[in-house]
Amino acid sequence: MKHIAVRLLFLLVVSGCKSTTSRDSGVFNDAGSGTEAPTDFEGTPVHLIGMDAVDDVWVIQSGGKRTDGDVASCGVLRATIEGRDLPLPLVRTDVVARATVHVGSVGVTQRYRNPFAQKIEAVYTFPLPHNAAVADFLLVVGSRRIRGIVREREEARRIYQQAKRQGYRAALLQQERPNVFKQSVANIEPGETLDLAITYFQPLTWRDGGYEFVLPTVVGRRFDPRGIDVPYLPRGAGSPHVVSASVEIDAGVALRDVSCPSHGRDAAVERVGERRARVVVRDVPADRDVIVRWTVADAPGAFAVHGEYFTLVLWPPRKAPKRPAPPREMVFVVDSSGSMRGEPLAACKRTIRRCLSRLRPGDTFRIVNFSDAAGGTRELPATRANLRAGERYLDALRGGGGTQMIHGVRAALAPSSSDGERRRIVTFMTDGFIGNDAEILGEMHRLVGDARVFSFGVGSSVNRYLLEAMARAGRGVAAYIGRDASGQRTADRLFRRLETPVVANVSVDFGQLRATDVYPSRVPDLFLDRPVVLYGRLRGKRGRIKVPGVGTWTVDVADAPRETVLDRLWARAAITELMDQRARTPGEGGLRERIRDLALDHGLSSAETSFVAVDGAQKTKGQWGFIVPIEVPVPAGSN
Question: Domains, the chain, ranges and CATH?
Answer without folding.
Answer: 8-17+38-64+84-299+604-629 (2.60.40), 303-320+504-601 (no CATH), 328-499 (3.40.50.410)
